Amino acid sequence: MAYGTALAVLADPTRRQVFERLRGGPRPVNIIAHGLPVSRPAVSQHLKVLKDAGLVEERSEGVRRLYSLRREGLMELREWLDSFWGDALDAFKLEAERSYRLKKRDK
Amino acid sequence: MAYGTALAVLADPTRRQVFERLRGGPRPVNIIAHGLPVSRPAVSQHLKVLKDAGLVEERSEGVRRLYSLRREGLMELREWLDSFWGDALDAFKLEAERSYRLKKRDK
DNA sequence: ACTGAATGTAAGTCATGACTTACCGTTAGT
DNA sequence: ACTAACGGTAAGTCATGACTTACATTCAGT
Fold first, then answer.
1. What is the pLDDT of residues B4-56, one digit of tens each?
2. Among A43, A72, A78, B15, which is least packed, fewest CB within 10 Å?
């Protein structure tokens, strides 16, 4: 039931912002917190929650701790979502690929 | 940012149960509530939230109100999830299709 | 018209969890 | 060794939201 955890963890807007800031690659807490509307400790707490949920991983580098995305943590949630399209799934996949190609093109 | 709403709404386990009970087709509140660990009014409230989020739709039939899934309400969330696999998306799609075929086979 | 089934809504309670500030540990540089 | 930067943790506050019970509403059947 790990998709339930992922849902709960990503439901919080601030925590989702923290998560999204990791798209561009590993970042230290300092940088992640900069510009966010909450304090640095709050970001630390969010990162802990994200880490416990398997959505983020941590690597120590000297005094810094670099956090990065764990996309695998999203897999179960994705599969759960998929499960709502029964036999329509194939058609949906085609649609998803189409919109993906469109996005790719006008980049 | 409707995917944020979907995340928040589906984060609650009870509400998710309500949502999942609609997989089998439209159902009245009565039936949905039966067997759930909460009262019927609680289910009504959950259904309202789900409806406001566009995840569920309601059709009146006499004194009954039939609620059913709105899968389109999940689309934005799905696209947001997709966006985490950059160029690896194609590879992932193949993987998703593979596991889907497997599931289909041993049904 | 009355009754009962089905459901929404109001009001109030209570737990959870997202913050804050204060503090502590650890590493790097001088 | 001192100091400053980096970051995790403790403790306490406060708002949100998931429940409950009680009540109001609406339709179907007799």
1. 999 999 999 999 999 999 999 999 999 999 999 999 999 999 999 999 999 99
2. A72
Task: Check A7 against B16: CB less than 8 A apart.
Answer: yes
Q: What is the DSSP string of A2-30?
A: HHHHHHHHHHSHHHHHHHHTTTTS-EEHH
- Chain C: nucleotides below 7 Å from protein CB are 4-10, 17-22, 25-28
Name the minimum distance, in Å, from the CA of B41 to any CA of chain A. Answer: 23
Contacts of A105 (CB under 8 A, 6+ apart): none
Q: How many C-alpha atoms does B83 have within 13 Å on its Cβ side?
A: 13
DSSP A57: E
Q: Tell me the CA distances in angstroms from B93 to B7, B97, B100, one per residue in order.
A: 22, 6, 10
Longest pairwise C-alpha distance within chain A: 52
Considering Cα of A11, then A12, then A13, then A16, what sign does the dihedral take? negative
Task: Name the residue type at position B74.
Answer: L
> How far, in Å, CA of B74 to CA of A80, rounded?
11
- What span, in angstroms and rounded, lies between the C-alpha atoms of B24 and B12? 20
Between CA A40 and CA A47, with CA A46 as vertex, the angle to 5 degrees is 90
CA–CA separation, B81 vs B15, rounded Å? 21
